[in-house]
Write a structure and sequence with these properties.
The chain is an alpha/beta fold. It contains eight helices and 14 strands. It has a single domain, classed as Alpha-Beta Complex (Spore Coat Polysaccharide Biosynthesis Protein SpsA, Chain A), CATH 3.90.550.10. The strands form two sheets. Strands 1, 2, 3, 4, 5, 6, 7, 10, 11, 12 and 13 form an eleven-stranded mixed sheet that branches.
Amino acid sequence: MQTEPQAKTKIAIIIKTTPNRFSLKWLLLSIEHALSQHTYRLYIADEQPLPEWKQWLYDELKARGHHVKVWDQPVAVTIARNDLINSLRNETFVLRVDDDFELGGEFNIDAMLTILKQDNIDFCCDVERQIGEGKGKISGETRIESGHILFRKKNRPVIKFITDSSWKYSSFNGISFAKADYMRNLILLKRKVFERVCWNENLLFTGEHVDFFLELKHAGFQGAFTNASIHLHRDDLKQSAVDIKEEKGLRIKQRKEVRDIELENKWGGKPEKRRSVYNRFYRRLKSFRSKQENTGPSHE
């Protein structure tokens, strides 16, 4: 691990995890490598019961000056993240990552920090590379899941997705970027954002991501993404498909019902997602090819 954070910590890294997520180990190791030239402090939220290796890990992290809070019972990701934000010290930036991400050799925190030097950019995301089966992507593929949010009077918002090849990139200090309102889950934000925006604690898990970006847009904050950095989404480190289904499928219907009611009351409904005809065709073709590779050609 990195040496103990100094008084002038620059980046706060917030992570919500659960006891059985072994992928957290790989995330922390990758953070140590990717941010070796920066000062950072980890802010981790977890739940009981902790396995022995995690208890040992957290004791070590706390001894080095990092922040770890372990809840006595399961806690919503939105509540946990807001609690971590309220625990921040003197950090200038906040990096929000999932516990199944890895900041591999293609990750470039300096590129994202460069984009945020601009006064009119408040948060920045990068590109995600899928590892393992999931998200409708073939393992190893990248995806730019980004678009613009449009608010409409007396109607639900619209997220207009842009195809990967259709973005118009600008350049700042040699780093390419594009302005966007909605992006994937890894986000580097200026600390000031949280003076006006937080995660919606009425949404326990499902829908919290899109609601957070609607809040950012509504508050007047401008986002961007850069293709100069790529993080890994390590679905290959998760449990078996049966375990995942048992873990997540138990209350998924109830979560979606809560999400739909909350978004209806707050924004006039779940955002309408619009994609170009080419983009819809491209995504379906990718999905078809992925299924063919997994199952092989059919034989009569």
